Amino acid sequence: MRIAGAALNQTPLDWDNNISNIIAAINEAKDKKVDVLCLPELCITGYGCEDWFLSEWVAETALKNLIDLIPHTTNIVVSFGLPIRFNDLVYNCACLVKNKEILGISAKQFLANDGVHYEPRWFTPWQHSQIENFKIEGKNYPFGDILYNIDGIKIGYEICEDAWRPDNVRPASRLCKLNVDLILNPSASHFAFAKSDFRYNLIIGSSEKFNCTYLYANLLGNEAGRMIFDGEVLIARNGDLIQRNDRLSFKNLNLVYADIDFSTGKVSEDPLQPDDREKNFEFWEAVTLGLFDYMRKSHSKGFVLSLSGGADSSACAVMVSEMIKKGIKELGVKEFLDKGGLSPIPGIESEPYESQIRLVTEKVLTCAYQSTKNSGRETYESAEKLADSIGARFYHWDVQDQVSGYIKTIEHVLAHPLSWEKHDITLQNIQARSRSPIIWMLANINNALLITTSNRSEGDVGYATMDGDTSGSIAPIAGVDKHFIQQWLTWAEKNLDQPGLRFVNSLIPTAELRPVEKTQTDEKDLMPYWLLADIEKLAIKDKKSPLEVFNILAKENKTEPALLRSYVDKFFKMWARNQWKRERLAPGFHLDEFNVDPKTWCRFPILNSGFKNELKKLKD
User: Fold this and answer.
1) 85: which of 10, 59, 388, 487 fits an S-S bond (Cβ 3.0–4.6 Å)?
2) Share of the chain above pLDDT 90, in %
């Protein structure tokens, strides 16, 4: 039996796109003589429909589209993912169809309810071992926890989260007792650093533990804005990985197959090794795909970036550059432009690859250096040289007149001058805010997305100006900390052939908002970025108290105790008072095992005690 899994790049409620991808997958499977094809979880609707799963018409439309897809299943078995409304409750389901006949509908038994997932808000878990009848166009079909028999091969389901539960409760343990041959796992499993390693262990280990063939098929791409799906397809048998695909593809469809002789246990493929990627590489792969899908699915024509010459904006510029390089290499320049919704560039297909990249980059990415009297020559040169090296359109203008105008107006109204000694934050913020209106104008003129360059460390402590440097449509690096960004830029300069980064990699991070003589640096304002990342992990991811954080880090003996205590105190105070900023940050990608986005991973009250009692314990 030839079995296949297909990763699909779907979009919530985009029926035409989703159905087109599904049909393309079925046709490719037929061309490759596939017997059983597993498509991802909720592939008909898209996974990210959120509260629209609660509306009756979404499930009705999904079912109608399923019925329309059935004629495409001639001489093939296909698993479709969709929501089903049954007895006024909504279930996350997979419908198995063989040769234009529905065999049954399997319902998800365990719902993801941690981190970025809120499935119980929309779906109801199905009770194991229970089967009922569900009527479609007047005919009853089995619905629930079903073991299928196709040509003597027993097939069962685990739908995504079902497989991540303890072995004694997950569906596979009961299927094993029923001598299952093949377990299908249609999934919508979000990308996170190193998560693929866990997934390999899960899928390969399950095939061994439950003495079966295990087929896993994930969604692909930036489906709904924040979560990126890596599109992983894995086929394992009795403890061996026998097939996998390339993750994070720019294509709409990524299908792989394997031949299994269920009577003898023989397979057509030699065992494979897991696709082991380091964190820097995964960051590059995920963000470039995330940006491309965000651009095209938002119907935007490119990106605009306020390029300060610092680490964060440089990382964003390089990611757009790499998005173009990676996309053209995988799709070809014509398909890249077509799929991206970008207008054609006459004669570009006859140009060499490097010229294609520069021509497209000039069209897609516009950068601007917005100086004030506090800006330094080094950051201007860093920005200009990076933009030139990647081929981006580059502008330079000065906003000091706007800054001075605002200051003069408020000084006149208040009848007293402003000074750095008394009005430090005010004078810093007005510079950042004065840059926002004109860069937004440019984004509007270009019908482009304005990139905001906030990283996770800045989100932690509110080290950003609301309606200033936080202005934007998308925050591509908001899911990672500044310490990681700094080392990634060094890695990218060497490993991604980005020579323009050597300028920013030689600079000390600074906001350049105070006068030069005050020698402002980010770490002087805050604390060492590596330490901020360590405190963040313990305080936010692990939910440790201030005293617990201090005690853990003090044992590492990296920072003098009194200084460490002051940094922990500063972190918790700044975290507590800046939740309102985190509520307003532009959408960012979920990339790590945690993030500080209150709309996905981390919720915290805007109004709170400021950890008053907990910080007193730390002080005492």
Assistant:
1) 59
2) 94
